[in-house]
């Protein structure tokens, strides 16, 4: 079997207007991929920085997959939240990134966005901090479904990954 080992960290965030951020992350794979070791999801701590607009998380990632195909390769789904002045945790944005399959070190800048909906939804967001969320974020994994969503750009999440691949050439997967 071919093996893919992903080691790295959800490093931080930049260009968000809010300063008290946290991030939930998920790795999604399709049929033909099996996880051997590691956790496919996690959550960072809250990062609070009064002086800059950047948050630092440095939350570790360590996954080991086996596969016989390149189809449905791992995708990273990110959800960013903030804590407001009243202590509420509020959803801010989504981000999706295809995990590279070639061995090496990668610094991924995952640009995030949020759904904006109708004018009424935008008023709720502006005055009450109630942002639209998807019922199932896993719909973001299929790129065709994302094109129908009206969105607004948010900040960027930085992810550092070391990718190690083994035996992909034996199964017809040339890197």
UniProtKB/TrEMBL annotation:
UniProt-listed PANTHER family: B9 DOMAIN-CONTAINING, B9 DOMAIN-CONTAINING PROTEIN 2
GO cellular component: MKS complex
PROSITE patterns, per the entry: C2_B9
Species of the source: Solenopsis invicta
Keyword Cytoplasm: yes
Family: Belongs to the B9D family.
Identification of the protein by name: B9 domain-containing protein 2
Subcellular location: Cytoplasm, Cytoskeleton, Cilium basal body
Keyword annotations: Cell projection, Cilium biogenesis/degradation, Cytoplasm, Cytoskeleton
Gene Ontology biological process terms from the UniProt entry: cilium assembly
InterPro entries recorded: C2_B9-type_dom
